[in-house]
Specification:
By secondary structure, the chain is α+β, with helices and mostly antiparallel strands. It contains 4 helices and 7 strands; from the N terminus they run E-H-E-H-E-E-E-H-E-E-H. The chain has one domain (13-134): Beta Barrel (Small Protein B, Chain: A). Helix content is 31%, strand content 31%. The longest helix is centred in the C-terminal third of the chain and has 24 residues, at 136-159.
C-alpha cells in the first residue's frame, strides 16, 4: 500500500509573509507550529495586521519562542492591550522541539518564521523553517537565477 504524501500546510488566511527568507537563507525543512496569543493579538491578526520580517525563533529549555515579531496593539482594545513586540511561545510536540534543538546546536542552522496564518479551523499558526544562511555569492546566484527565469518567461510570451 503506497504511503500518503503529507498535505501542505492548510493556509486559509495568510496574515504575514517573510519574503526575504528565501533570499537570505537556504530552507532545509519546514514545520507548522501553533502560537500562544492573547485575545487582543488574535483580533489584531484577524484585522490583517502583523509582521514577521525581522523575527526569528529560539529554543529555550523545552520551549520554543518567537522573538521580535510585531503584532500592533488592537485599536479598540482597552488597558488590557498586549505589548506589540513581546516574546511569544510556539506550540510544538516534544519530539519536534528536540529535533529543532539538535539541528540548531549541532548543524548551526537557524530557525526562522516563513509565514503567519490562520488555518481552516481558525487557529493562528506559524510556518517555521530550519535554514542555513547564504553567503554573498549565493545571494548573487539567486538574483541571476531569478532574472534568467523572468527573461525566459518574457521570451516565451513574445515568441510563443
Amino acid at each position: 500500500m503506497p504511503r500518503e504524501l503529507p498535505t501542505p500546510f492548510d493556509k486559509v488566511k495568510v496574515v504575514a509573509d517573510n519574503r526575504r527568507a528565501y533570499y537570505e537563507y537556504f530552507v532545509e525543512e519546514k514545520f507548522e507550529a501553533g502560537i500562544e496569543l492573547m485575545g487582543t493579538e488574535v483580533k489584531s491578526l484577524r484585522g490583517g495586521e502583523g509582521s514577521i520580517a525581522e523575527s526569528y525563533a529560539m529554543v529555550e529549555g523545552e520551549e520554543v519562542f518567537l522573538v521580535n515579531s510585531n503584532i500592533p496593539a488592537y485599536a479598540k482594545g482597552s488597558w488590557m492591550n498586549h505589548e506589540p513586540r513581546r516574546k511569544r511561545r510556539l506550540l510544538l510536540k516534544k519530539r519536534e522541539i528536540a529535533k529543532l534543538h539538535g539541528s540548531i546546536t549541532r548543524q548551526g542552522l537557524t530557525l526562522i518564521p516563513l509565514s503567519l496564518y490562520f488555518n481552516a479551523r481558525g487557529r493562528a499558526k506559524v510556518e517555521l523553517a530550519l535554514a542555513r544562511g547564504k553567503k554573498l555569492h549565493d545571494k548573487r546566484e539567486t538574483i541571476k537565477e531569478r532574472d534568467w527565469k523572468r527573461d525566459q518567461q518574457r521570451l516565451l510570451r513574445h515568441n510563443g
